[in-house]
Protein: UDP-N-acetylglucosamine 1-carboxyvinyltransferase
Organism: Ruminococcus flavefaciens 007c
Amino acid sequence: MQKFIITGGKRLSGELVLQGSKNSCLPIMAASLLCSSECTLHSCPKLTDVYAASRILNCVGCKCSFSENTAVIDPGNVSCTAISEELMREMRSSIIFMGAMLGRAGECIVSVPGGCELGPRPIDMHLSALRKMGVEITETGGIIRCRTPSGRAKGTRISLAFPSVGATENVILCAVTAEGDTVINNAAREPEICDLCGFLRACGADIAGDGGSRILIKGKQQLHGCEYTIMPDRIAGATYLSMVAASKGELILTNACTAEMEPFLSVLEQTGCSIYTSDDRIYLRSAARLKAVRDRIRTMPHPGFPTDAQAVLMAALSLADGTSVFEENIFDCRYRHTGALIKMGADIQVLGKVAVVKGAERLFGAAAEATDLRGGAAMVIAAICAEGRSEISRICHIDRGYEKIEEAVRLLGGDMRRV
Ligand code: UD1
C-alpha cells in the first residue's frame, strides 16, 4: 500500500499548470459512446477514475488508448450493453454510462453504484427521469435492466427535484439521440455540464441553455466524432490555491478557468490573500497569517460555494486567525476529514451539517488515513503546514482526483514523497 510522507513547514511558491477536469472528463468519455466515429480528447487527467472509465469503454467493445494526456476513443463497435458489477463498483460516476448506453443502444444492464464514503448516493432522480423518457427499468438484487421498446428514448419535459449533476448528465446523454425534444427544468448549472454539452455540440448535438436551469435538447439520429479539449479542473485549482495560501506562499496557476472558479475565489479572498486573475491565470499571494472567513461558508449547487472545495478550504482555515463556520448542504457525510485535522492540532467542532473551525496557532505532523478524495487532499494541506512529519495512507482516494499531487507539491518547494 502506498503512502505519502510529508515534512511540513515549507512555504510553497512557484507556477503550476492546472490539470484537466476529472468531473468533465468522465461524462465526456461516456458521451463518446454516442458517436459513430473516433473522438480525440485532449487534457485528460491521468487519474485512476479516468482509467476506470476507459475499462468500461473497453468492456462494451470500444477501443480507448492514451498518449500522455490525450485519449483516442473509437466507439465504432459497441458489441455489449452490459457493464459488469465489478467495473460499476470501481467508481461511483460509472452510473453516467447508463444514459450514454441508452443513447447509443437503447438498452443497458448496469448495477446500483451503492453508498460511498460521502454517505448514501441514491439514483432515484436518474431513474425517474429516464422512465419519463420511455425507458423501461427493472431493478433486482442491485442489477438495473433498462430498455426502450422502440430502440430510442422519447424526448419529454423533465423537472428535477434537485439540480443533481449526475442526473442532469444522464438525461442529457440519453436525450441527445432520443426521438423528439427534451426540456430539463431545474438542471444542474455546474461548469462541467457546459463542458459536456460543448463536447456534444462539437459532435453535432443540438443543445441550448446549459449553464442555466433550463436545458433544451433536440434529439438527433446520430452524432459524429470530434476533437475536444477538456476544461481545467476547478476543484484541483481550489486545492492548490488553498494549499499555497495556507503555507503563506505565492502561486501562479495557469490553464485555470477563472470565471468558473469565482464562487471559490471570492471566499478565499476573504482570508486576506491577494488574488489577481487574467484570462486563464490566477495569481495568489498569501497573507502572513490567514484571516478566518467572516460569513458562513455554505456549500450549494453552482454558482454557490462548491462542496468539493469545503474540505481543502477547511484545512487552510484551521490555521487562520479567528473562527470560520462551514455549512455542508449537499452531502450527509462530508466531514470525515475533520478527525485527522483534529489529530494534527486543529480545533474543529462538528454539529450535524455545521462545522466550527477555530484557527489554531500551529498544527503538528501525524499519521492519518485518507477518508475520501477531497478529505485526503485536506490532510495533505494540513500536513504541509504542520510542524514535523506526517504519513498519509489510503492514498488511492487522492489518486482518483489529483494527477501526481506529490510532484506538484515538490515543484512548489514542498517536501512530499510517495513510498
Ligand atoms: C457530482 C460530482 C461530485 C460533486 C457533486 C456535487 C462528478 C463525477 N461528481 O456528483 O464531485 O461533489 O456533483 O457538486 O461529477 N441525489 C439524490 N438522488 C439522485 C441524485 C442525487 O438524492 O438521484 C443527491 C445526492 O445524494 C447528493 C445530492 O443529490 O446529496 C447531489 O448529488 P449530485 O449533484 O447528483 O452529485 P453527483 O453527480 O453524484
About this structure: Residues 23, 26, 93, 121-126, 162, 164-167, 188, 192, 307-308, 330-331 surround uridine-diphosphate-N-acetylglucosamine (CB under 6 Å). The first helix runs from residue 22 to 31. The chain has 14 helices and 23 strands.
